[in-house]
Design brief:
The chain has two domains: about 10-195, Roll (ph1033 like fold), CATH 3.10.590; about 200-234, no CATH class. It has helices at about 20-30, 45-50, 65-80, 150-160; strands spanning about 10-15, 30-35, 85-90, 95-100, 105, 115-130, 145-150, 185, 190-195, 210, 220, 225, 230. It is built from four helices and 13 strands. It has about 230 residues and is α+β, with helices and mostly antiparallel strands.
């Protein structure tokens, strides 16, 4: 068994649109990203990635193209054995937590929408959303398909899950979709455990639409965007 590195990078992963590949990733013991336009990532560097994304030799890549190339190459090259993967599982109200056990692999036999680019993961436990510190309450709503989260408390919780000290069986998932934030959760003994009370609602007159920039990954007011990229990064 491969143990998580005490200084492991924690990667938060989304399992495709509407998280529909969660069960597949759990059953396959893998995480993946869907870039059907890319061939085997072993043969792709930054220049080739940008070319595949439509950037000509004399063209300046857009922020979207740079972000897509960086995300793909992060999955292929930056994730390491003994890093920790946290797979968003809204149906179960938590993150399936596992240890990366091998190198990148290209599964060309899969359809393009089933994430052909994969890495093996040994799933250990599930970290409930309610266990997150308040500063990480945004993580269950993350839209980016892959993100390295440099937070010490999150890594501590993930390592405890990997050691089996906290959390639940990640394969024990409800059939129906429950509310994302449950009012109570249970301990391993089945006793109810109160969750953090919901944050008070803000008055409607000061509520602003927000979104997360796909380049700097910071959530900002809707009026600071032109498309999916904020004006600071445009």
């Amino acid at each position: 068994m491969i143990h998580a590195d005490e200084m492991a990078t924690v990667w938060v992963v989304r399992a495709g649109p509407k998280d529909r590949l969660v069960r597949s990733f759990l059953d396959d013991g893998e995480i993946g990203v869907s870039f059907p336009q890319f061939p085997d990532g072993h043969d792709v560097d930054r220049s080739k990635a940008l070319k595949i994304l439509g950037v000509g030799l004399d063209d300046e890549p857009s922020k979207h193209q740079e972000a897509d190339a960086a995300l793909f190459l992060s999955f292929v090259r930056r994730i390491r054995v003994a890093d920790v993967a946290l797979l968003l599982d809204p149906v179960a109200g938590g993150f399936a937590c596992g240890v990366v056990t091998g190198d990148y692999r290209y599964r060309g036999e899969l359809d393009g929408d089933r994430a052909q680019h994969r890495r093996p993961v040994d799933w250990r436990r599930r970290l409930p959303f309610d266990a997150l510190p308040a500063r990480l309450d945004h993580l269950p709503d993350q839209r980016v398909v892959l993100d390295a989260v440099p937070d010490g408390r999150l890594r501590d919780l993930a390592l405890q899950c990997c050691r089996g000290e906290i959390g639940e069986d990640p394969f024990d998932r409800p059939a129906a979709t429950p509310p994302r934030r449950r009012s109570t959760s249970t301990t391993g003994s089945g006793r109810p455990r109160a969750s953090r009370p919901p944050a008070p609602k803000r008055p409607s007159q000061v509520t602003r639409a927000e979104r997360r920039c796909t380049v700097c990954l910071v959530t900002k007011s809707e009026d600071l965007f032109d498309g999916d990229v904020c004006r600071d990064c445009a």
